[in-house]
Amino acid sequence: MRNFDLTPLYRATVGFDQIADMMDRALASDVSPNTYPPYNIEKTADDAYCISIAVAGFSDADLSVEVKEGALIVAAKKAEDGSERTYLHRGIATRAFERRFQLADHVRVTGAAHADGMLHIELTREVPEALKPRRIEIASTGAREADVVEAKAVN
After folding, report:
1. CA 112 distance to own-chain centroid
2. Is position 151 within any domain?
């Protein structure tokens, strides 16, 4: 795989550092992809999304969901169980994890619910009024001609 150096992008642009940082993270080849816990990202409406994470074995108290510096951070740490159990087979992973999702501008977390071993996080894109498209009225040319004052000849 090729490595891309984005340093020239930092030198030649102002204000695009978030895009360059995101590309750096996406193109990082030294980090193996983290597949635990499995998750889905679905688009539920034009400006609404839902992230569903499989968190079997974790209680509400074990889970943490927070938004920090434009990133959604979901973490879990299983509380220590005082009982000593002997497993013949242990296939349910309850190891601690931290999963980060980089949020786009104006995307806000609106809620989270934990049911049936799934953590569902609702997100909404809320574009400010100043950034929404708006219609500009076009003045008719007849109104412009009425404002013109006729010049009088001086002789």
Report:
1. 15
2. no
Residues whose CB is less than 8 angstroms from the CB of residue 119 and which lie 6 or more positions away in sequence, other chains included: 52, 53, 55, 63, 65, 74, 112, 113
Tell the residue number behind the tokens 């412009």, with chain if given: 144
Q: Is the dihedral of CA 6, 34, 72, 66 positive or negative?
A: negative
Quick one: residue 67, left, alpha or beta (phi over 0 = left, psi -120 to 50 = alpha)? beta
Residues 121, 142, single domain; the answer is yes
Judge whether 154 lies within some domain. Answer: no
Beta-carbon contacts of 93 under 8 Å, excluding residues fewer than 6 positions away, are 36, 37, 57
Is pLDDT of 152 > 70? no
At 104, list the tokens: 């786009």
Q: Encode pLDDT of 88-110 as tens digits.
A: 988 887 889 999 998 988 899 99
